[in-house]
Amino acid sequence: MRSSGILLHITSLPSPGGIGDLGPEAYAFADFLVSAGMKIWQVLPIGPTGYGESPYQSPSAFAGNPLLISLSRLRDEGLLTYDDSEIFVPADPERADYAGAWKSKEPLLRRAFRQSGDRLRPELDAFRRKNRWAADFALFSAVKAYFGGEMWSRWPKKGIRNHRLLSRWLYGSMLREEIDFHLFCQMIFMRQWFALKKYCNDRGLLLFGDMPIYVAEDSADTWTHPEVFQLDKNRIPERVAGVPPDCFSEDGQLWGNPLYRWDYLKQKGYFWWVDRMKAMNRLFDIVRVDHFIGFGHYYSIPYGAPNARNGRWEDGPCRPLFETLQREIPGMRIVAEDLGEVNDQVRDLMDWTGYPGMKCLCYGFGGDITNQHHPANYTPNMVLYTGTHDNDTMLGWARQADPKELAFAMKTLGFETPEEAPAAFVRGALASMADTAVIPMQDILGLDNSARMNLPGTVGGNWLWRMKPGAAAPEIAAGLRKLNEETGRLQS
Fold it and tell me: What is the Cβ-side half-sphere exposure of residue 93, based on CA atoms within 13 angstroms?
């Protein structure tokens, strides 16, 4: 069945408080998607952000980002009282202000925690028992704050650093209130997330999530399950993740995430991955697995290397992992992000799983018609993007493109100036034979490169774009609905 969707992260919503959240603007955007004839809302990873505010460097593979909690919904539920003057007002409404938003939101969340008192205690205790990951993450967060934000590998070597039972009990007793606060935030986040998911699903809208393949070095996951990762006896990574040098970067990309001990995981029935994917399957209707090629083969870089030049390729878990996942979570809808260096192992894995891969229309005009991203080479079983969160906007791309590539795109998609590129790329994606087409909201709005979400290989200045209030206007929805109907993507 042909369908379409829009990529817009929660942080990019025009909510009050300096960052998008799970409040009224999220519901309004869901209504916009439905009126536009879209069936999919794709978001980036929803966990707490890490270094550089990247959602791909989260301190937890399971937790939600408390910054996305809607204070107005807490107030509507009677869990929080506050005056609107207490809400942070950013200097630029089109840029997320993570620091300013948290400085304003954290004390209000703590107030909600205190004001809830015994009212939510039974629910909080039940949430703790049902979600072991949440208890681990809450303890991790509280201990990390106690040690001034230090990485867990720098905590006292004997005891809590090594996740000893007695130390966990001691710190758990000493930091009980702080632990409960972090647990409260996770409970509220999940409550608000699943309320939004139900609202979307009830209107025929699917939530399409994004799951990074790796976790951050400084995370609750590496602390609680060091045996799952390539760490030495001091809990320091032995080798880390990245990608080799290519046409975009002569040094490659040094991500720095710890790599998995796939042999150990296989012996243990891939327990950690089964738990993780079950959690993703509950949170989302469709899951994009980032850097899927890492399951076929992955790039391994010595820890402490200055760049990614001296890494080596290693075999990934391949089919046995996905045999386990398909047995444990039948029917889970997965999209494989297969952009990058694909070898025969990856191709064989893609063929065996049958998961749809990805193509980017903006990549399709380098070279000639044999380019795998050119529309002539698309198949139904794929998800097509004009570009992803890692690409420039289509207007930004067109204004800076190689003249030959731009001319090829103009000829293929039928436009004459860079300013016409966004509309042409949107139409080209929706008119393609790909079963699923997803368009970043920036391209729907025809924005320039100031609205770019991320520039890979850089730190700072990323993950900031926010949509203007009122930008998702009824006339834009009407135009998209007409385009969906013309391209056979509008189902009743």
Answer: 10
Residues 116-156 have pLDDT tens digits of 988 899 999 999 999 999 999 999 999 999 999 999 999 98
DSSP 367: S
Residue tagged active-site, from 221, 290, 338, 448: 290
Q: Residues 337, 338, 392, 405: which is the catalytic one? A: 337
Residues 128, 11: Cα–Cα separation, whole Å: 27
Nearest CA to 138 out of 28, 84, 64, 231 is that of: 64
For residue 35, give the 3-state DSSP assignment: helix
**DSSP 3-state helix, strand, coil percentages of the chain (rounded to 5)?**
45, 15, 40
Q: What is the pLDDT of residues 418-448, one digit of tens each?
A: 999 999 999 999 999 999 999 999 999 999 9
Q: Which of 59, 73, 348, 334 minimizes the C-alpha distance to 188?
A: 73
269 class by beta-carbon count within 10 Å (0-12 exposed, 13-18 middle, 19+ buried): exposed
Contact 398, 405 (CB under 8 A): no
Q: Tell me the domains of the chain and their CATH numbers.
A: 3-356+435-486 (3.20.20.80)
What is the torsional sign of CA 317, 319, 324, 326?
A: positive
Structure tokens at 346: 């990856």
Label the pairing between strands 382-385 and 436-440: parallel
Residue 48 DSSP one-character state: P
For residue 285, the one-letter residue type is D
Distance set, CA 152 to CA 49, 52, 148, 162, 177 (Å): 17, 19, 11, 9, 20
Asked whether 248 and 45 are in contact (CB, 8 A), the reply is no
Active site residue 290: yes
